[in-house]
Amino acid sequence: WKLSNGVLSTSTTQNLTLPAGTSYLYCNNLWASGVQVSSNITASNFTGDLSVFSNLTNLLYLNGCTRVTGNLSSLSNLTYRLELYGCSLVTGNLGSLSNLTNYLDLGNCPLVTGNLSSVSNLTYLLSLSGCPLVTGDLSSLSNLTNYLILDKCSLVTGNLSSVSNLTYRLSLNGCSLITGDLSSLSKLTNSLS
Fold first, then answer.
1. Which of 47, 58, 101, 130 is deepest in the core (most CB within 10 A)?
2. Measured between alpha carbons, how far is 162 from 152 in angstroms, rounded to an integer?
3. Alpha-carbon span 103 to 121, nearest angstrom
């Protein structure tokens, strides 16, 4: 690491806060399996395009980074977890994220488009709250077991029985095209809205 304040580090693991200015990371295998990039509390101070993360395969966490731009197609190699909550300038189609298997949070990314069938491999969490251009049917999400948050996704259709495996939270505020009987959600233990 060469930090903007002049500090140099050759440690193989870093848990640091980058100082103001431009810092650099030089390495021979940044894109190795299991590498994770997280903004932590950087939020709106982080500026950049998603394309710089195109080789990441495990996790990218940039929640609240309101100045991040780019297209989801740059992140098609991710297989585990993507969190871009509140990155309202991000564009792209859910079809670019079909390799994700665990966790996807694109809440308040209103420029995102696509069909729920593209993220049918997800098993833990899907949050697309405030993504009004997303379409699809709940039947594509039968693998989800913990969280489904689709508030303000008014183009989503389907029956509640399709997500009967959910055990923790289901939020469908503003999803008027979804039908079904609440009794099919008997496994939910925490929150239904």
1. 130
2. 19
3. 10
The region of weakest confidence among 53-57, 87-91, 125-129, 151-155 is 53-57
Give the model confidence (pLDDT) of 41-97 as tens digits: 555 667 788 998 888 888 888 888 888 999 999 999 999 999 999 999 999 999 999
Return the amino acid letter for 169: R
For residues 70 and 50, the answer to whether their CB atoms sit within 8 Å is: yes
Exposure string of 84-95, with b = 16+ CB inside 10 Å and e = fewer, is: bbbbbebebbbe
Token readout for 83 is 């969190």
Give the pLDDT score at 7.
Answer: 73
Contact 117, 95 (CB under 8 A): no
Q: Please state, in angstroms and rounded to a whole number, the distance separating the CA atoms of residues 28 and 16.
A: 20
As a 3-state breakdown, the chain gives helix, strand, coil percent values, each rounded to 5, of 15, 25, 55
